[in-house]
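Per-record layout

source: Vibrio marinisediminis
name: undecaprenyl-diphosphate phosphatase
length: 250
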Amino acid sequence: MKSVLQAKRNGLLLLVILLLLIAPMTLLVNHIELLSPESDFEGATFTILTNSAGSGGFLVTLAVLAIATLTLKMTPKQQLSKVIQLGVILLIGFTAKTGLKHLTESPRPYTEVLSHQLLVPNPAHFYQLSAVQQESVINKVSENVSHWRTQHWMGETDYSFPSGHTIFAAICVAFFGGLFLDHKRYALAATLMVWAIGVAYSRLWLGMHRPIDLIGSVLFVALVYALLPSMDGLSGKIGHVLNLNKRCFY
């Protein structure tokens, strides 16, 4: 176990730094007014950031990061091991996110705005409405809320804790960021960290999450990443099978 943690020390270090950078957002969130008008530049920037870690763009982000890793010196066995490890942690992250949301049933921050505008009796009531009713309620508040925010409210009417976007960003920081540090690609690691912070803040700005959602997501990823096996043994077996098949083919 000690050797496994030692191999992941850079990824875990980056997650600690990510936590330390997210913590001050607890103070910044008080200055975010969801009912205030916003510029198109600001709205577009946070939308691009949040989409890069969401269902519409996470594959593009993964592709870009995967291409960046091609510049790193790794053997085919190491590459296969990392691919398996990434696939497992992504599967765990996305599956657990869905389960935790249903377990905690924490209303999203924007439902508090709906409640303050007297469109629902309380935030929890929003989740008792049908999809059509939820859309209708959000449409009514759109007269007072920027479309940059309400378009995301329309698309994500599930619960708040944890933040799936932040889970994905934290996985990228731990996995790819750790690799970049291992190979002394400090600029790539720093760029990745700035992106992850941007994604996390975009979730607050849009009214989709609270700071505790972000912090809990990073802590969850840190735990899973720390406990995840290296996958070297499995990659060796798969590589051996592939080599046997290759020989049989020829």
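summary: The chain has a mean pLDDT of 90. The two ends are 41 Å apart (CA to CA).
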